[in-house]
Amino acid sequence: MAPAPAGEVVTVEALPAPFDATVALPGSKSITNRALICAGLAAGESTLDGALFADDTLAMVGCLRGLGIGVELDEAGARMTVSSPGLPAAAPASLFANQSGTTGRFILPVAALGATPVRVDGDAQLRRRPFAPLLDALVRLGVSVAAEGEPGHLPVVVTGPLRGGAVSVPGDLSSQFLSALLLAGPAMPEGIEIALSSPLVSASYVAMTAAVMTSFGAAALERRPGAGGALEVLKVPPGGYRPTRYRVEPDASAASYFFAAAAITKSRVVVEGLGRASLQGDVAFAGLLEQMGAEVVRSPEQIAVRGTGVLHGIDADLSDCSDTAPTLAVVAAFADSPSTLRGIGFIRHKESDRIGRPVTELRRAGIAAEELEDGMRIVPGAPVRTRLRTYDDHRLAMSLALLGLGGSGMEIENPGCVAKTFPDYFERLAELSSPR
Protein backbone atom coordinates (compact mmCIF):
# COMPACT_ATOMS: atom_id res chain seq x y z
CA MET A 1 0.00 0.00 0.00
CA ALA A 2 1.34 3.47 -0.81
CA PRO A 3 2.03 5.32 2.45
CA ALA A 4 0.32 8.56 1.45
CA PRO A 5 -1.73 10.04 -1.38
CA ALA A 6 1.09 12.15 -2.78
CA GLY A 7 -0.02 11.88 -6.42
CA GLU A 8 -3.27 11.54 -8.28
CA VAL A 9 -3.57 7.80 -7.62
CA VAL A 10 -2.88 5.77 -4.49
CA THR A 11 -2.49 2.00 -4.56
CA VAL A 12 -4.05 0.06 -1.72
CA GLU A 13 -2.58 -3.44 -1.48
CA ALA A 14 -4.23 -6.44 0.13
CA LEU A 15 -3.25 -6.95 3.75
CA PRO A 16 -0.46 -9.53 4.07
CA ALA A 17 -1.90 -10.77 7.36
CA PRO A 18 -4.70 -9.92 9.80
CA PHE A 19 -3.98 -6.99 12.10
CA ASP A 20 -4.69 -6.29 15.77
CA ALA A 21 -4.68 -2.54 16.25
CA THR A 22 -5.84 0.14 18.65
CA VAL A 23 -6.47 3.44 16.91
CA ALA A 24 -7.08 6.97 18.08
CA LEU A 25 -9.07 8.83 15.45
CA PRO A 26 -9.57 12.54 14.72
CA GLY A 27 -12.51 14.41 16.17
CA SER A 28 -15.98 14.32 14.72
CA LYS A 29 -16.52 16.74 11.84
CA SER A 30 -20.23 16.98 12.60
CA ILE A 31 -19.70 17.74 16.28
CA THR A 32 -16.77 20.12 15.69
CA ASN A 33 -18.79 22.29 13.31
CA ARG A 34 -21.83 22.32 15.59
CA ALA A 35 -19.67 23.25 18.58
CA LEU A 36 -17.97 26.01 16.58
CA ILE A 37 -21.36 27.59 15.85
CA CYS A 38 -22.42 27.39 19.51
CA ALA A 39 -19.08 28.82 20.68
CA GLY A 40 -19.31 31.56 18.07
CA LEU A 41 -22.67 32.65 19.50
CA ALA A 42 -21.54 32.51 23.15
CA ALA A 43 -20.22 35.82 24.50
CA GLY A 44 -16.74 35.07 25.87
CA GLU A 45 -14.09 32.42 25.34
CA SER A 46 -14.83 28.76 24.60
CA THR A 47 -12.38 25.91 24.06
CA LEU A 48 -12.93 22.85 21.89
CA ASP A 49 -10.66 19.94 22.80
CA GLY A 50 -10.23 17.07 20.37
CA ALA A 51 -11.46 19.21 17.48
CA LEU A 52 -11.06 18.02 13.92
CA PHE A 53 -8.59 19.88 11.72
CA ALA A 54 -9.70 19.23 8.14
CA ASP A 55 -11.01 21.18 5.18
CA ASP A 56 -14.63 21.17 6.36
CA THR A 57 -13.91 22.46 9.86
CA LEU A 58 -11.34 25.00 8.67
CA ALA A 59 -14.01 26.29 6.29
CA MET A 60 -16.24 26.90 9.32
CA VAL A 61 -13.37 28.61 11.15
CA GLY A 62 -12.85 30.91 8.17
CA CYS A 63 -16.53 31.82 8.03
CA LEU A 64 -16.68 32.61 11.75
CA ARG A 65 -13.60 34.79 11.43
CA GLY A 66 -15.26 36.55 8.50
CA LEU A 67 -18.14 37.42 10.85
CA GLY A 68 -15.76 39.00 13.37
CA ILE A 69 -15.47 36.00 15.71
CA GLY A 70 -11.96 35.13 16.86
CA VAL A 71 -10.72 31.55 16.52
CA GLU A 72 -7.23 30.47 17.59
CA LEU A 73 -5.97 27.11 16.33
CA ASP A 74 -3.63 24.62 17.99
CA GLU A 75 -3.52 21.75 15.51
CA ALA A 76 -0.85 19.82 17.42
CA GLY A 77 -3.08 19.86 20.49
CA ALA A 78 -6.29 19.33 18.49
CA ARG A 79 -7.64 22.45 20.21
CA MET A 80 -9.64 25.45 18.98
CA THR A 81 -10.24 28.53 21.14
CA VAL A 82 -13.18 30.74 20.17
CA SER A 83 -13.47 34.33 21.39
CA SER A 84 -16.83 35.85 20.57
CA PRO A 85 -18.77 39.04 21.26
CA GLY A 86 -21.88 36.85 21.24
CA LEU A 87 -23.23 37.90 17.85
CA PRO A 88 -21.63 38.45 14.43
CA ALA A 89 -20.02 41.81 13.81
CA ALA A 90 -22.34 44.41 12.30
CA ALA A 91 -20.42 44.74 9.07
CA PRO A 92 -20.79 43.43 5.51
CA ALA A 93 -18.86 40.19 4.94
CA SER A 94 -18.07 37.65 2.26
CA LEU A 95 -17.84 34.03 3.42
CA PHE A 96 -16.55 30.98 1.57
CA ALA A 97 -17.67 27.52 2.73
CA ASN A 98 -15.41 25.59 0.33
CA GLN A 99 -17.01 22.12 -0.15
CA SER A 100 -18.53 21.93 3.33
CA GLY A 101 -22.28 21.40 3.41
CA THR A 102 -22.44 21.79 7.19
CA THR A 103 -20.54 25.07 6.99
CA GLY A 104 -22.58 26.53 4.13
CA ARG A 105 -25.90 25.59 5.69
CA PHE A 106 -25.10 26.27 9.35
CA ILE A 107 -23.51 29.67 8.70
CA LEU A 108 -26.44 31.12 6.72
CA PRO A 109 -28.82 31.71 9.68
CA VAL A 110 -25.89 32.97 11.78
CA ALA A 111 -24.91 35.42 9.03
CA ALA A 112 -28.54 36.58 8.86
CA LEU A 113 -28.68 37.50 12.56
CA GLY A 114 -27.22 40.91 11.72
CA ALA A 115 -28.71 43.73 9.67
CA THR A 116 -25.83 44.03 7.20
CA PRO A 117 -25.48 42.02 3.97
CA VAL A 118 -23.36 38.86 4.08
CA ARG A 119 -22.41 36.93 0.96
CA VAL A 120 -22.07 33.16 1.30
CA ASP A 121 -20.46 31.10 -1.45
CA GLY A 122 -18.66 27.79 -1.86
CA ASP A 123 -16.72 25.55 -4.20
CA ALA A 124 -18.37 24.47 -7.46
CA GLN A 125 -19.27 21.15 -5.82
CA LEU A 126 -21.12 22.92 -2.98
CA ARG A 127 -22.84 25.24 -5.45
CA ARG A 128 -24.47 22.16 -6.98
CA ARG A 129 -25.94 20.99 -3.68
CA PRO A 130 -29.48 22.09 -2.68
CA PHE A 131 -30.07 25.01 -0.31
CA ALA A 132 -33.62 25.99 -1.29
CA PRO A 133 -35.51 24.70 1.80
CA LEU A 134 -33.23 26.67 4.13
CA LEU A 135 -33.21 29.82 1.98
CA ASP A 136 -37.00 29.69 1.65
CA ALA A 137 -37.33 29.36 5.43
CA LEU A 138 -35.10 32.39 5.97
CA VAL A 139 -37.21 34.45 3.58
CA ARG A 140 -40.37 33.47 5.43
CA LEU A 141 -38.68 34.59 8.65
CA GLY A 142 -38.08 38.05 7.20
CA VAL A 143 -34.54 37.70 5.86
CA SER A 144 -33.65 39.20 2.48
CA VAL A 145 -32.04 36.54 0.26
CA ALA A 146 -30.52 37.64 -3.04
CA ALA A 147 -29.45 34.81 -5.33
CA GLU A 148 -26.36 35.47 -7.44
CA GLY A 149 -26.60 32.24 -9.41
CA GLU A 150 -29.11 29.42 -9.77
CA PRO A 151 -32.07 29.97 -7.43
CA GLY A 152 -31.93 27.71 -4.38
CA HIS A 153 -28.16 27.40 -4.55
CA LEU A 154 -25.07 29.31 -3.51
CA PRO A 155 -23.88 32.01 -3.90
CA VAL A 156 -26.40 34.19 -2.09
CA VAL A 157 -26.40 37.43 -0.13
CA VAL A 158 -28.44 37.36 3.08
CA THR A 159 -29.49 40.45 5.01
CA GLY A 160 -31.24 40.26 8.36
CA PRO A 161 -31.95 40.79 11.09
CA LEU A 162 -33.25 37.28 11.68
CA ARG A 163 -35.54 37.64 14.68
CA GLY A 164 -36.96 34.12 14.65
CA GLY A 165 -40.53 32.92 14.91
CA ALA A 166 -42.41 30.01 13.37
CA VAL A 167 -41.59 28.38 10.04
CA SER A 168 -42.12 25.11 8.19
CA VAL A 169 -39.34 23.07 6.54
CA PRO A 170 -39.20 19.65 4.86
CA GLY A 171 -37.26 16.93 6.63
CA ASP A 172 -36.74 14.45 3.82
CA LEU A 173 -33.91 16.08 1.87
CA SER A 174 -31.36 16.91 4.56
CA SER A 175 -31.45 17.24 8.33
CA GLN A 176 -28.86 20.03 7.97
CA PHE A 177 -31.59 22.57 7.10
CA LEU A 178 -33.28 21.84 10.41
CA SER A 179 -30.05 21.81 12.40
CA ALA A 180 -28.98 25.13 10.86
CA LEU A 181 -32.08 26.89 12.14
CA LEU A 182 -31.96 25.18 15.53
CA LEU A 183 -28.33 26.15 16.11
CA ALA A 184 -29.04 29.83 15.51
CA GLY A 185 -32.35 29.69 17.41
CA PRO A 186 -31.08 30.63 20.90
CA ALA A 187 -29.55 33.81 19.44
CA MET A 188 -32.82 34.88 17.78
CA PRO A 189 -34.84 37.36 19.88
CA GLU A 190 -38.00 35.29 19.35
CA GLY A 191 -36.36 31.87 19.31
CA ILE A 192 -37.37 29.42 16.59
CA GLU A 193 -40.31 27.05 16.12
CA ILE A 194 -40.02 24.63 13.19
CA ALA A 195 -42.83 22.50 11.81
CA LEU A 196 -41.71 19.51 9.75
CA SER A 197 -43.69 19.15 6.53
CA SER A 198 -42.21 15.75 5.61
CA PRO A 199 -40.55 12.87 7.47
CA LEU A 200 -37.16 13.63 8.97
CA VAL A 201 -34.11 11.82 7.60
CA SER A 202 -30.92 11.41 9.65
CA ALA A 203 -32.79 12.09 12.88
CA SER A 204 -29.67 11.14 14.85
CA TYR A 205 -27.96 14.29 13.56
CA VAL A 206 -30.74 16.47 14.95
CA ALA A 207 -30.36 14.72 18.31
CA MET A 208 -26.63 15.45 18.09
CA THR A 209 -27.38 19.11 17.37
CA ALA A 210 -29.63 19.35 20.41
CA ALA A 211 -27.04 17.68 22.66
CA VAL A 212 -24.24 20.04 21.61
CA MET A 213 -26.53 23.05 22.06
CA THR A 214 -27.44 22.09 25.63
CA SER A 215 -23.74 21.54 26.43
CA PHE A 216 -23.27 25.24 25.61
CA GLY A 217 -26.12 26.29 27.89
CA ALA A 218 -29.02 26.52 25.46
CA ALA A 219 -32.47 25.58 26.69
CA ALA A 220 -33.50 22.02 25.90
CA LEU A 221 -35.06 21.39 22.53
CA GLU A 222 -38.85 21.03 22.80
CA ARG A 223 -40.53 18.47 20.52
CA ARG A 224 -44.25 17.86 20.14
CA PRO A 225 -46.59 16.26 17.61
CA GLY A 226 -47.57 18.49 14.72
CA ALA A 227 -50.99 19.75 13.71
CA GLY A 228 -52.57 21.04 10.52
CA GLY A 229 -50.41 18.91 8.25
CA ALA A 230 -47.14 19.20 10.19
CA LEU A 231 -45.60 15.89 11.28
CA GLU A 232 -43.70 17.31 14.24
CA VAL A 233 -42.84 20.68 15.77
CA LEU A 234 -39.43 21.51 17.25
CA LYS A 235 -38.94 24.62 19.34
CA VAL A 236 -35.92 26.41 20.80
CA PRO A 237 -36.60 29.43 23.05
CA PRO A 238 -34.32 32.50 23.04
CA GLY A 239 -31.66 32.80 25.71
CA GLY A 240 -28.34 32.42 23.97
CA TYR A 241 -25.32 30.27 24.78
CA ARG A 242 -22.65 30.39 27.47
CA PRO A 243 -18.89 30.00 26.94
CA THR A 244 -17.89 26.38 27.49
CA ARG A 245 -14.93 24.03 27.47
CA TYR A 246 -16.12 21.19 25.27
CA ARG A 247 -14.56 17.86 24.30
CA VAL A 248 -15.28 16.60 20.79
CA GLU A 249 -15.76 12.85 20.36
CA PRO A 250 -13.69 10.91 17.82
CA ASP A 251 -15.40 10.73 14.45
CA ALA A 252 -17.71 7.72 14.21
CA SER A 253 -17.82 7.96 10.42
CA ALA A 254 -14.02 7.73 10.34
CA ALA A 255 -14.19 4.78 12.72
CA SER A 256 -16.49 2.93 10.33
CA TYR A 257 -13.66 2.43 7.81
CA PHE A 258 -11.47 0.73 10.40
CA PHE A 259 -14.33 -1.35 11.74
CA ALA A 260 -15.07 -2.44 8.18
CA ALA A 261 -11.40 -3.20 7.52
CA ALA A 262 -11.32 -5.53 10.52
CA ALA A 263 -14.56 -7.25 9.54
CA ILE A 264 -13.47 -8.08 6.00
CA THR A 265 -9.88 -9.15 6.81
CA LYS A 266 -10.45 -11.35 9.88
CA SER A 267 -8.68 -8.71 11.96
CA ARG A 268 -9.36 -6.85 15.20
CA VAL A 269 -9.50 -3.10 15.80
CA VAL A 270 -10.21 -1.05 18.91
CA VAL A 271 -11.29 2.59 18.54
CA GLU A 272 -10.60 4.59 21.67
CA GLY A 273 -12.74 7.44 22.94
CA LEU A 274 -15.86 6.26 21.14
CA GLY A 275 -18.21 4.41 23.47
CA ARG A 276 -21.76 3.23 23.75
CA ALA A 277 -22.98 6.69 24.83
CA SER A 278 -21.74 8.44 21.68
CA LEU A 279 -23.80 11.31 20.27
CA GLN A 280 -23.17 10.10 16.73
CA GLY A 281 -25.64 7.97 14.83
CA ASP A 282 -22.84 6.39 12.81
CA VAL A 283 -21.80 4.26 15.81
CA ALA A 284 -24.71 2.07 14.68
CA PHE A 285 -22.40 0.83 11.92
CA ALA A 286 -20.67 -1.48 14.39
CA GLY A 287 -24.03 -3.05 15.18
CA LEU A 288 -24.67 -3.66 11.49
CA LEU A 289 -21.34 -5.47 11.23
CA GLU A 290 -22.37 -7.50 14.27
CA GLN A 291 -25.58 -8.53 12.49
CA MET A 292 -23.46 -9.62 9.53
CA GLY A 293 -21.28 -11.87 11.69
CA ALA A 294 -18.49 -9.73 13.16
CA GLU A 295 -17.81 -9.75 16.88
CA VAL A 296 -18.38 -6.37 18.56
CA VAL A 297 -17.51 -5.40 22.14
CA ARG A 298 -18.67 -2.01 23.47
CA SER A 299 -17.69 -0.18 26.63
CA PRO A 300 -18.18 3.41 27.80
CA GLU A 301 -14.74 4.36 26.42
CA GLN A 302 -14.18 2.22 23.33
CA ILE A 303 -15.61 -0.08 20.67
CA ALA A 304 -13.81 -3.19 19.41
CA VAL A 305 -14.64 -5.07 16.21
CA ARG A 306 -13.21 -8.47 15.24
CA GLY A 307 -13.71 -10.15 11.91
CA THR A 308 -14.71 -13.76 12.44
CA GLY A 309 -14.17 -14.88 8.87
CA VAL A 310 -17.93 -15.07 8.28
CA LEU A 311 -20.02 -12.21 6.90
CA HIS A 312 -23.67 -12.67 6.00
CA GLY A 313 -25.75 -10.46 3.74
CA ILE A 314 -28.00 -7.90 5.41
CA ASP A 315 -31.20 -5.99 4.74
CA ALA A 316 -30.64 -2.67 6.48
CA ASP A 317 -32.33 0.72 6.77
CA LEU A 318 -29.46 3.24 6.91
CA SER A 319 -31.53 6.41 7.14
CA ASP A 320 -29.96 7.32 10.50
CA CYS A 321 -26.36 6.46 9.55
CA SER A 322 -26.36 7.30 5.86
CA ASP A 323 -22.70 8.39 5.69
CA THR A 324 -21.74 4.75 6.23
CA ALA A 325 -23.74 3.46 3.25
CA PRO A 326 -20.80 3.32 0.78
CA THR A 327 -18.72 1.53 3.42
CA LEU A 328 -21.38 -1.06 4.16
CA ALA A 329 -21.77 -1.60 0.40
CA VAL A 330 -18.07 -2.53 0.26
CA VAL A 331 -18.42 -4.88 3.25
CA ALA A 332 -21.42 -6.47 1.54
CA ALA A 333 -19.19 -7.39 -1.40
CA PHE A 334 -17.34 -9.81 0.93
CA ALA A 335 -20.45 -11.43 2.44
CA ASP A 336 -21.83 -14.89 1.65
CA SER A 337 -25.22 -13.68 0.41
CA PRO A 338 -26.71 -10.52 -1.18
CA SER A 339 -27.40 -7.35 0.80
CA THR A 340 -30.00 -4.62 0.42
CA LEU A 341 -29.27 -1.13 1.77
CA ARG A 342 -32.32 1.13 1.86
CA GLY A 343 -33.83 4.29 3.32
CA ILE A 344 -31.12 6.46 1.80
CA GLY A 345 -32.53 7.99 -1.37
CA PHE A 346 -31.54 11.44 -0.08
CA ILE A 347 -27.81 10.66 -0.27
CA ARG A 348 -27.93 11.17 -4.02
CA HIS A 349 -27.62 14.89 -3.15
CA LYS A 350 -24.42 14.65 -1.11
CA GLU A 351 -20.93 15.48 -2.42
CA SER A 352 -21.72 12.96 -5.15
CA ASP A 353 -24.58 10.61 -5.91
CA ARG A 354 -23.74 8.16 -3.14
CA ILE A 355 -26.06 5.52 -4.56
CA GLY A 356 -25.24 5.69 -8.26
CA ARG A 357 -21.49 6.28 -7.90
CA PRO A 358 -20.72 3.41 -5.49
CA VAL A 359 -22.77 1.04 -7.67
CA THR A 360 -20.80 2.14 -10.74
CA GLU A 361 -17.44 1.62 -9.03
CA LEU A 362 -18.38 -1.71 -7.48
CA ARG A 363 -19.34 -2.91 -10.94
CA ARG A 364 -16.02 -1.60 -12.27
CA ALA A 365 -14.35 -3.83 -9.67
CA GLY A 366 -16.35 -6.86 -10.79
CA ILE A 367 -19.02 -6.80 -8.08
CA ALA A 368 -22.66 -7.14 -9.12
CA ALA A 369 -24.46 -4.09 -7.75
CA GLU A 370 -27.80 -2.49 -8.53
CA GLU A 371 -29.32 0.91 -7.86
CA LEU A 372 -32.67 0.95 -6.07
CA GLU A 373 -34.99 3.91 -5.70
CA ASP A 374 -33.88 4.50 -2.12
CA GLY A 375 -30.70 2.44 -1.88
CA MET A 376 -28.72 -0.35 -3.51
CA ARG A 377 -28.42 -4.12 -3.72
CA ILE A 378 -25.01 -5.82 -3.56
CA VAL A 379 -24.26 -9.37 -4.67
CA PRO A 380 -20.98 -10.68 -3.18
CA GLY A 381 -18.02 -11.51 -5.38
CA ALA A 382 -14.24 -11.33 -5.67
CA PRO A 383 -13.11 -7.73 -6.33
CA VAL A 384 -10.94 -7.38 -9.43
CA ARG A 385 -7.94 -5.10 -9.17
CA THR A 386 -8.61 -1.96 -11.19
CA ARG A 387 -8.61 1.82 -10.95
CA LEU A 388 -11.62 3.31 -9.20
CA ARG A 389 -12.96 6.85 -9.48
CA THR A 390 -13.85 8.88 -6.39
CA TYR A 391 -15.84 11.76 -7.95
CA ASP A 392 -14.12 14.21 -5.56
CA ASP A 393 -16.08 12.58 -2.71
CA HIS A 394 -14.08 11.83 0.42
CA ARG A 395 -16.43 9.10 1.61
CA LEU A 396 -16.20 7.20 -1.68
CA ALA A 397 -12.41 7.38 -1.63
CA MET A 398 -12.21 6.03 1.91
CA SER A 399 -14.77 3.27 1.46
CA LEU A 400 -13.63 2.04 -1.97
CA ALA A 401 -10.07 1.73 -0.69
CA LEU A 402 -11.27 -1.12 1.52
CA LEU A 403 -11.99 -3.19 -1.59
CA GLY A 404 -8.24 -3.37 -2.11
CA LEU A 405 -7.48 -4.21 1.48
CA GLY A 406 -9.75 -7.23 1.49
CA GLY A 407 -9.27 -8.27 -2.12
CA SER A 408 -6.29 -8.28 -4.48
CA GLY A 409 -5.38 -4.61 -4.24
CA MET A 410 -6.95 -1.52 -5.82
CA GLU A 411 -5.97 1.83 -7.32
CA ILE A 412 -7.88 4.86 -6.05
CA GLU A 413 -8.01 8.07 -8.10
CA ASN A 414 -7.85 11.55 -6.53
CA PRO A 415 -7.08 10.30 -3.01
CA GLY A 416 -6.41 13.84 -1.85
CA CYS A 417 -10.15 14.47 -1.60
CA VAL A 418 -10.06 12.82 1.84
CA ALA A 419 -8.61 16.10 3.17
CA LYS A 420 -12.22 17.21 3.51
CA THR A 421 -12.61 15.26 6.76
CA PHE A 422 -9.64 12.89 7.28
CA PRO A 423 -6.40 14.29 5.77
CA ASP A 424 -4.10 11.41 6.76
CA TYR A 425 -6.55 8.59 6.08
CA PHE A 426 -4.35 6.68 3.65
CA GLU A 427 -1.37 6.92 5.98
CA ARG A 428 -3.48 5.54 8.82
CA LEU A 429 -4.75 2.76 6.58
CA ALA A 430 -1.18 1.88 5.60
CA GLU A 431 -0.29 1.48 9.29
CA LEU A 432 -2.62 -1.50 9.50
CA SER A 433 -0.24 -3.56 7.35
CA SER A 434 2.90 -2.46 9.23
CA PRO A 435 4.71 -5.06 11.33
CA ARG A 436 3.82 -4.93 15.02
Question: Describe it for me?
Answer:
The protein has helices at residues 29-40, 55-66, 101-111, 124-127, 132-140, 175-184, 203-215, 252-264, 284-292, 325-332, 356-364, 394-406, 425-431, and strands at 9-12, 20-23, 44-49, 70-74, 79-84, 93-96, 118-121, 144-147, 156-159, 165-169, 192-196, 222-225, 232-236, 245-247, 268-272, 295-298, 302-306, 315-317, 339-342, 368-372, 375-379, 387-388, 410-413. The chain has 436 residues and is α/β, with parallel strands linked by helices. It folds into 2 domains: 9-26 and 251-431, Alpha-beta prism (UDP-n-acetylglucosamine1-carboxyvinyl-transferase, Chain), CATH 3.65.10.10; 29-220 and 227-233, UDP-n-acetylglucosamine1-carboxyvinyl-transferase, Chain, CATH 3.65.10. A 4-stranded mixed sheet has the order 2-15-17-16, with helices on one face. The chain has a 4-stranded mixed sheet with strand order 4-5-3-14, with helices on one face. Helix 10 (325-332) links the parallel strand 18 and strand 19 (339-342). The longest helix has 13 residues, at 203-215. The radius of gyration is 21 Å and the shape is globular. Residues 1-6 have low confidence and may be disordered.
